[in-house]
């Protein structure tokens, strides 16, 4: 069908009714991503492919970054939120800081960033302060409806990591493994500092 909306619905319908034919489904979705002129259709195909083959969908996502189309960028961010690695961070940060996303796309960009960043180590997680600070000041109404929840989720992950380190520090102290204990104390402090810096953003956002 020449109408992209119809083709988009067809992608979703096809993937629902072909779950038992994984190989054929993957080939069909790959063809759609490579050949369809509509980024809405491509985005739908990427969403379905992500459920079937994470490696293939990551390859497509990275190759499509250069097109720099907002709707497509949000679909790429969705993929990165689930499977992205350190090398994909800058794309997600830029997507949230460039001010080009509108409406629900801006919300999707923020949520994808949150799911991605909470899977990373402290070196990347510390960068979330700048992103959440920007979104607190400049995010649209859709973002602000969910921003506190996103920051609280981030803090909950940080708190879990800090608590796990506290147990390890105690064990190291008992074992008199002081060098390892001091390294973990320093790491725990970074988690605790980030929690302290993110917490006021919840108060500011919630009060608006």
Q: Poorly predicted ranges (pLDDT <50, ≥5 residues)?
A: none
Query: How many separate helices?
Result: 11
- Shape designation: globular
Percent helix: over 70%
Gyration radius, to the nearest Å?
Answer: 20 Å
Oligomer: single chain
Structural class: mainly alpha
User: Total strand count, please?
Assistant: 0
- The first-to-last residue Cα distance is 46 Å
What portion of the residues fall into strands of 2 or more residues? under 5%
Give the averaged pLDDT, no decimals: 89
SSE sequence, one letter per element = HHHHHHHHHHH
* Biggest pleated sheet: none
List keywords for this structure.
about 210 residues, mainly alpha, 11 helices, about 80% helix
How would you describe this protein?
The protein is an all-alpha fold. Helix content is 80%, strand content 0%. It is built from 11 helices and no strands.
Which helices and strands, and how do they pair?
Elements: H1 4-17, H2 22-35, H3 39-50, H4 54-64, H5 70-83, H6 89-97, H7 103-117, H8 122-125, H9 128-138, H10 141-174, H11 178-206
Helix pairs in contact: 1-3, 2-3, 3-4, 3-5, 4-5, 5-6, 5-7, 6-7, 7-10, 9-11, 10-11
Could you give a quick summary of the protein structure above?
The protein is 80% helix and 0% strand. With 208 residues, it is an all-alpha fold.
